[in-house]
Amino acid sequence: MNKNRKNVAVIGAGFGGLQVVKKLSRYPDVQITFIDKNNHHLFQPLLYQVSSAVLSAPDIAIPTRNLTARRKNVKVLMQEVTGIDLPNRIIHMTDKQVTYDYLVMAMGARTGYFGNEHWERNSLPLKTLKDALRIRNKLLIAFEESEVNPKKSKDLLCFIIVGGGPTGVEISGAFAELAGKIIKNEYRTVDTSKTKITLIEAGSDLLPTFDRSLSEYTKLQLIKRGVTVYTDTRVLDIFENGVRVRFLDGTEKNLYAEFVIWAAGVEANSISRKLGLRLDKSGRILVNEYCSVNEYPEVFAIGDIANFTGSNGKPLPGVSPVAMQQGRYVARRIICDIKGKETKPFKYYDKGSMATIGRNTAIAQKGKIKLKGRIGWFSWLFIHLFYQVGFKNKISILITWIWSYITFGASARVITYPGEK
Fold it and tell me: How far is CA 360 from the centre of its chain?
């Protein structure tokens, strides 16, 4: 064993953390401790397909130990980080503590409620597998209870999604497709196509980071699928089974639903507020051009927990390509630092953005290049399969998508906790 090995601790098994580990593990002079409170890497962009019963949980999650089994210089710890002693380079966890020479924080983000934390009790987030399975259960139970009590179906089959970003749009489209086409002929006493799905966005456009024409296209496609879309509509309160909103003209109204999904905001992992570092208003750690902290150059923050100023003077968006590129960069920087070499500042290459609306319908944008409809949808399918981790997962998802496309089926409709409301 090489006693001169540098100890690198990587916290977070998301897109960024996994890239750091994959690249660093090629170097025998580095010992890596890979820490996450869960035992898996999660492909978050497809969480909405688990919540809408298209994919099952194992399709988009793969055990971290499986990914690192052949990387002998990687030690995996399923532990929750409770604190970090930056001056002494010690990570405190639930049942253990470790020291490090380099630290990479890639813990991602959590659901944020813009200071209205009491809304959490009355809404459902979508950031983890547990969240997706909970939403799926509630959705499927609502359909089952409607079959038993058709007179209550008008109230039971009413769902509200708050937030017109990619998550909100994709959930809305998936719910509409499930209710209107996939399960329509499976119920005898209730017409699931009459399910009311409401999408609420505070801004003037859905998917505001896209070109206005694509935002308008998205809105029209959702409406075509039966989704009620409110833009320029501010949520004032979320109560049990509904929300209170204010429209652009100043009028207020209560909208009722069986449940409310919150897809309107995120904030950095709460551990960032315990470190005494400079943060932005969302709790993200402010990093320099090398993705590191000025006070502690051996400490790096990447992905959703970091605020990195891009070439346009604005923070980079919280999307997986940013985290992945930063992860690969930080791994190179650590190796260069160990070897005494200089590295250039990190530069993000924007590969574009995309979002799916439903069957044969998606949008994509890269600079002035804009795609929509079927070609956008196939582009979306290819990219999401390409970046999926694990060959088995790629094949499983591909087969499921082909089967779903041919049969209009959604096979992951098992209610795992039938007693849950």
Answer: 22
Structural domain boundaries of the chain? 6-37+79-111+267-338, 117-264+353-407
Q: What is the pTM of this model?
A: 0.93
Burial zone of 226 (CB within 10 Å; 0-12 exposed, 13-18 middle, 19+ buried): middle
Q: Which amino acid is at 3?
A: K
Cα–Cα distances in angstroms (integers) from residue 399 to residues 55, 174, 376, 396, in the given order? 11, 18, 20, 5
**Residue segments in the chain with a per-residue pLDDT below the cut of 50:** none
Model confidence pLDDT, tens digit, residues 163-202: 999 999 999 999 999 999 999 999 999 999 999 999 999 9
Give the angle subtended at the CA of 53 by the CAs of 49 and 58, to the nearest 5°. 70
pLDDT (tens digit, 9 = 90+) per residue, 369-390? 999 999 999 999 999 998 898 8
Half-sphere exposure for 164 (CA within 13 Å, toward CB): 27
- Please say whether the beta carbons of 243 and 237 come within 8 A: yes
CB atoms near residue 72 (< 10 Å): 10
pLDDT of residue 327: 98
Tell me the fold of 117-264+353-407.
FAD/NAD(P)-binding domain (3.50.50)
| 6-37+79-111+267-338 has CATH 3.50.50.60 classification | yes
Residues annotated catalytic, as ranges: 170
Which 3-state string (H, E, C) describes the chain?
CCCCCEEEEEECCCHHHHHHHHHHCCCCCEEEEEEECCCEEECHHHHHHHHCCCCCHHHHEEEHHHHHCCCCCEEEEECCEEEEECCCCEEEECCCEEECCEEEECCCEEECCCCCHHHHHHCECCCCHHHHHHHHHHHHHHHHHHHHCHHHHHHHCEEEEECCCHHHHHHHHHHHHHHHHHCCCCCCCCCHHHCEEEEECCCCCCCCCCCHHHHHHHHHHHHHCCEEEECCCEEEEEECCEEEEECCCCCEEEEECCEEEECCCEEECHHHHHCCCCECCCCCEECCCCCEECCEEEEEECHHHEECECCCCCECCCCHHHHHHHHHHHHHHHHHHHCCCCCCCCCCCCCCEEEEEECCEEEEEECCEEEEEHHHHHHHHHHHHHHCCCHHHHHHHHHHHHHHHHHCCCCCCCCCCCCCC
Do the domains spanning 6-37+79-111+267-338 and 117-264+353-407 agree at the CATH topology level? Answer: yes
Longest Cα–Cα distance of the chain, Å, equals: 73
